[in-house]
Every structure is written in structure tokens, then in C-alpha cells.
Amino acid sequence: MLTQSTSDRFLSALMVLLAVCSLISTFYSTVVLVGDSNDRTRPLTAIPGQNVVRSYSFDGDDYPTSYPIGNLPLAQMTVEESAHYSLTHSDEYEWLYNSPYGTGAVRVGPAYRGFFVSMFHQLHCLRYFQSESHTTNAPASGHVSHCFNYLRQMIMCAGNLTLEPGDFTKRNYTQERTGQTHVCRDWTAAYDALADNWVDWFQYKHEHNLTDLSNGAPGRTTATTA
């Protein structure tokens, strides 16, 4: 059973983490290059993807480092405070709404090898923090430590260098509801790609009379979570 002080420290740590994570896109952001006053940014261009499934065997370590969905367009996202996605139990389904078909698990290659996409691993960690923040049981320390460290490393990996004026630690978030606009990779394309992958895997299982078709429900699959 969590003590009140332990619970308060846990919630405070979660709020700090969520504030940091809200300043980045969970998918890798690109750097906005600032020029002179007449040319503030470079034009936005698509980030090349890797359409390379056929060139890998998917045996052992022979697989691409990123999920190959082709070129991803760029998108702009203005950071905003929200009345949604709180740490309370009532908002749990809002957090679940961020989960794609298959929860982030994909099947790739001729043998339908299972993987998990990093972006959705990160969102899983945030959902885990949210669910544990209102439980009466002590959270699994190993899972908590893993998620904190995983998100820390992913934030550093993304390296979002967007300039934010002023001191965010002194900002009144109740009155100042919007922040800077960030340039991101289009996360909707990632959701669409994973939905297509889930449909393909579901059809493959059906055509080959594989069992446990029930695990293909939206937002849940055991394809790679075992």
C-alpha cells in the first residue's frame, strides 16, 4: 500500500515527466533552422523513409532499424495545455485512445516476424504511469524504472532543439495555455501504417487457419507482447 507521502512524490514525478514529454513529439522531431529576419525557417520537406522490406531476410539481426513505411511528411504541432489526459481514473480511456491497432506491435517480413514500434512503446509508458497513479497497490518498481529511463533516452534521442522563449518554470500554465509550434514527423501516417499492418496480419492468420484470432481486436494483440 502506498503511503500518502510516497503517492504524492510519485504523482509529482509523473507531472514533471508529462510536462517534459508534452514539449516534444513522441515521434522524432526535426530541427527548425533559423535564418535572418526575412527568412526565419527553411522550407519543410519530407523525411525519406526506408521501403526496404524485400532487401532483408528478417532472420537474426538482419532487419531494418525503422519500420519501413516510405516517406513521412512533416507536420506542425503547437504545444497546448489540455483539460484531457489527466492522471485520474476517469481519463484512462482517453489515454487508451492513443493506442493504435495492435497497441504498437507489427509483423514484418516473409515470416511475419514480430516487432514493436518505439513511438508506441513510449506512449505505453505514459499510459502505464497514468494507470499506476490512481491504483492502491505499489507500482512494479522494475517497470517504473524501465519506463522512466526509456523515456529519458528517447527524449535525448529525439534532440528537439525548438527554441522556447522565456522561463517555462515560471510560466502560469492556467493562463498561458499555448506554447511553441514544433515541426514533427506526421504521426497520423504512423497510425495509418500500423492499422494496415494489423489488417494484413489478421487476414494472414485467417487465411492460414491460425488460432486465437480474438487477439486482433483494436488496441490489443499478442503478436509481439509475449
UniProtKB/TrEMBL annotation:
One term of GO molecular function: oxidoreductase activity
Keyword list, A-Z: Oxidoreductase
UniProt-listed GO biological process terms: mycotoxin biosynthetic process
Pathway: Mycotoxin biosynthesis
InterPro entries recorded: UstYa-like (IPR021765)
Recorded family membership: Belongs to the ustYa family.
Protein name from the UniProt record: Oxidase ustYa
Source lineage: Eukaryota, Fungi, Dikarya, Basidiomycota, Agaricomycotina
